[in-house]
Amino acid sequence: MSVVDELRLGVNIDHVATVRNARGGALPDPVRAAALAAHSGADGITAHLREDRRHIRDADIERLVREIEIPLNLEMAATTEMRDIALRHQPNACCLVPERREEITTEGGLNVAGDTSALANIIAPLKAQDIRISLFIDPEATQIEAAASLRADIVELHTGAYCHAHADGDTARVQSEVDRLQAAAALAADAGIEVHAGHGLCFETVGAITAMPEIMEVNIGHFLIGEALFTGLPSAIAEMRRCMNAGRALVGANS
Ligand code: PXP
Known about the structure:
The chain contains eleven helices and eight strands. By secondary structure, it is of the alpha/beta class. The protein has an eight-stranded parallel β-barrel, surrounded by eight helices. Helix 4 (80-89) packs parallel to helix 5, helix 7 (160-167) packs antiparallel against helix 8 (171-190) and helix 10 (222-231) packs across helix 11. The longest helix is centred in the C-terminal third of the chain and has 22 residues, at 233-254. It binds pyridoxine-5'-phosphate. Pyridoxine-5'-phosphate (PXP) binds next to strand 4, strand 8 and helix 10. Pyridoxine-5'-phosphate (PXP) binds at residues 12, 14, 48, 75, 95, 97, 105-106, 136, 156, 198-201, 219-223.
C-alpha cells in the first residue's frame, strides 16, 4: 500500500445540519450529504453530537450508523451521556473533544494530561466494545504522553492555530505551527498512536499537513460544506483529495 493509499479523508457533515436547523425542518438532510460524500470518495464521515444539539441530533447519528457504509467517527464531549449514546450506536470511532456551550466551534484541544482518571472512565467501556478512541489534542508532548498512558488508538492534532496563522498571512507563525504539528505527529507515531489532524483546513492549508508522513487521516467540515455551495460536494471532495495528495507527494520528494 502506498503512502497516498493510507491517507484518508473524513468529511464532517455538521454544517449541513446547521443549515437544516436554521429552518427547523428536515432539509437539507445531513445523512444525504454523508451518502453523497461516501459516493464521492470520502473514507469516513465525522459528526459532532454536541451537548446542546445545535447541529447534529441523536436521530442523525442513528441514521448515519444504519444508512452509511463508510466508518463513522462520532465526535463528542467526554461525558457519561455521550459515552452511553456511543455504546448504543457503536460508531467505528469516538473522537473525544472539549466542549464549552458558549464557543462557536471547538476552540482548543482536550486537556488529557489534566483529566486522565475521568477520561479513563469514559474510554474503558468504549474500548471494551472495540470502538476506536481518538483524542482531539493540541500538538503538545504532555498531551501525547497522557494519550499514550490512556492507550488511545488515535490522536487528532488540532490544526486551528496553524490555520489561523495562515489566514492572518503570518508566514513565521505558519512555519512554527507546522513545526509544532510535525514534532507532535512524530512523537505520537513513535508512541504507536495513529495520527489524524483537523480543524479549519482548506485547499491551501491541507497540503502542509498531509506532507507529514505520520498523518493518516484529515477531518474536514466547514470549508468543504461551504465550498460545496459553489461547486457541489463531489467536486469539492475531489479537489480536496488532489490537494491532500499533492502534499503527500512531497514526502517522497523530500526523502
Ligand atoms: N476535527 C475535530 C475534532 C473537530 O472538532 C472539528 C470541528 O467540528 C473538525 C475536525 C472539523 O473542523 P472544520 O469544520 O473546521 O473543518
